[in-house]
Amino acid sequence: MDAIKSLSLLTRACPYLARTGLAALHGAAGGSGVRGLSTSAVELARCSVCPGHTGQSALLAKASECPVVGPSIRANEAAAPKQAAASKQAAASCPYAGKCGDTPGRAGSAELPASLGSQEAAFDYEGLYQAKLAKKHADKSYRYFNNINRLASKYPQAHTANPSNMVTVWCSNDYLGQSRNPVVVDAMTAALNTYGAGAGGTRNIAGNSGLHVRLEAELAGLHRKEAALVFSSCFVANDATLSTLCSALPDCVIFSDQMNHASMIQGIRHSKARKHVFEHNNLAQLEQQLAQYPRATPKLIAFESVYSMSGTVGRVPEICALARKYGALTFLDEVHAVGMYGPRGAGVAEHYDYDASLRAPAGQRVPGSVLDQVDIITGTLGKAFGIVGGYIAGSSALVDMIRSYAPGFIFTTSLPPPISAGAVASIQYLADSQRERFLQQTHVRQLKADLARAGIPVVPNPSHIVPVLVGDAARAKRASDMLLAEHSIYVQSINHPTVPVGEERLRITPGPGHDAAMRARLVAALDAVWSALGLRRSADWEREGGRCGVGESRTNSELHVGWKRGVDFVWEDHQLKQAHDYELARTGAVPVAPALLPMIWAA
Ligand SMILES: Cc1ncc(COP(=O)(O)O)c(C=O)c1O
Question: What's the 514 CA to ligand 1 centre distance in angstroms?
Answer without folding.
Answer: 24
